[in-house]
Specification:
Rossmann fold, six-stranded mixed sheet, glycosyltransferase activity, Glyco_transf_61_cat, Glycosyltransferase 61 family protein, Caps_psacc_synth_Cps23fI-typ
Length: about 400
């Protein structure tokens, strides 16, 4: 049990406890997952075969790595002293939030480490690393190697920090995690770019989810002096330079805001345009608020939501169909655009053209959210009843 009353058998909390503790193991066995799934048997066993619960990755109220079976044999060995990095995600947002969650320990080590040791999220990926993963680690710990254990591996010395960041209550980050980010991450990146920045998703395509009507919103924002920025076309260093330079930032909700939050400041104004109805939005706003010490403007202006036909519920693959007039009013009220700006509502013909251009008109891949359809039907019935009542009252 920790001083906060919860050990690693409970979720990590931002106020301290095991999320800010460090354990060092000699001769530990690191075991990668065998199956590709959300919850996987994977993690760390001590030299005596006990499960190291502190090495587990938690998401909200449950661990998504659970105690693995002891391997029948361990052929790989790793000499030296290594920092446990946990699960290495290929998904950009999950990498930022979950694969970075142990790096807070680097400034708290009594001895240096030889590198950071991960396990792959997907077994088929093996020990492969991606460019953005390597660049991110280098921005946090310049020159420190990373390694991925693709098979059970005996490690001479493994330093296991608690999970200081992630999804759930821990999205606020522990004090030690936030301090490490603010003191170490991207310190040498010089601000470069305009004061007004819109972080776009419009080039990501159907498989990544997005905003229907985003290109039209971008034209309206350009008229207000905003640069339209597509982060996937730039290195992390270039992205961070833009985020540091901007004084007003508007973004479609998504992974880019997790990166922005790591270098954001209280003097920056931030607005987030929702593209889906999802609890992930609340976590994203919480992340920005606690890391940047500001209150982001969250704009919910969905006319409806388009969801994958094989999974008809809000997710990161959903498309939100936005109401430009609602967004314009919110941005004008809070000083992001001209106070007298009047953004138009799309006509039915314009709306239909967007659906066709995005491949959603008559598409067999996406359908309108059942929740939004029911909501619209209820609103139509209420309006019909109101008209009848008014007609009766005037009779």
């Amino acid at each position: 049990m920790t001083e906060h009353g919860a050990g690693p058998e409970d979720q990590p909390l931002p106020d301290g406890g095991w999320s800010e503790e460090i354990e060092t193991l000699r001769g530990a066995c690191v075991i990668p997952p065998v199956d590709s799934a959300l919850v996987q048997k994977a993690g760390v066993l001590t030299a005596s075969g006990d499960y190291c619960a502190k090495a587990a990755l938690w998401r909200k109220y449950r661990p998504i790595t659970v105690q693995p079976d002891p391997p029948s044999e361990v052929n790989a060995t790793l000499p030296g002293r290594w920092l446990w990095g946990g699960v290495l995600w290929a998904h950009f947002g999950h990498f930022l939030v979950e694969s970075s969650s142990r790096l807070w320990a680097l400034p708290h080590l009594d001895q240096p480490v030889d590198g950071i040791l991960f396990i792959p999220k997907r077994p088929a990926v093996g020990d492969e690393t991606r460019g953005f993963q390597r660049e991110f680690i280098n921005l946090f710990a310049p020159g420190l190697p990373i390694r991925v254990a693709a098979e059970p591996t005996r490690v001479e010395e493994l330093v296991v920090p608690g999970q200081g960041f992630g999804l759930g209550h821990i999205t606020r980050g522990t004090r030690k995690f936030r301090n490490a980010v603010h003191s170490r991450f991207a310190r040498d990146v010089t601000p470069e770019g305009p004061e007004k920045l819109y972080i776009s998703r419009s080039k990501l395509g159907l498989s990544k989810g997005g905003l229907l009507g985003e290109e039209q919103m971008e034209e309206l924002l350009q008229a207000e002096g905003y640069e339209i920025f597509h982060p996937q076309d730039h290195s992390l260093t270039e992205q961070l330079a833009r985020y540091k330079a901007a004084r007003q930032v508007i973004a479609a909700d998504g992974s880019a805001l997790h990166l922005f939050a790591m270098v954001g400041r209280p003097d920056q104004k931030v607005a987030m345009v929702l593209r889906r109805q999802s609890g992930a939005n609340n976590l994203l706003a919480m992340n920005v608020a606690h890391f940047c010490k500001c209150n982001p403007l969250v704009i919910g202006a969905l006319r409806t939501e388009w969801v994958p036909v094989n999974k008809p519920k809000s997710s990161r693959n959903s498309f939100g169909e936005i109401d430009h007039s609602v967004i314009g009013r919110a941005l004008a009220t809070h000083g992001f655009i001209s106070a007298d700006a009047k953004w138009p509502v799309l006509s039915d013909d314009q709306r239909q053209q967007i659906l066709v251009e995005k491949g959603l008109g008559g598409s067999d891949r996406f359908v309108e959210s059942p929740e939004f359809k029911q909501q619209r039907i209820r609103e139509m019935r209420r309006a019909r009843r109101a008209r009848r009542a008014a007609k009766t009252a005037n009779a």
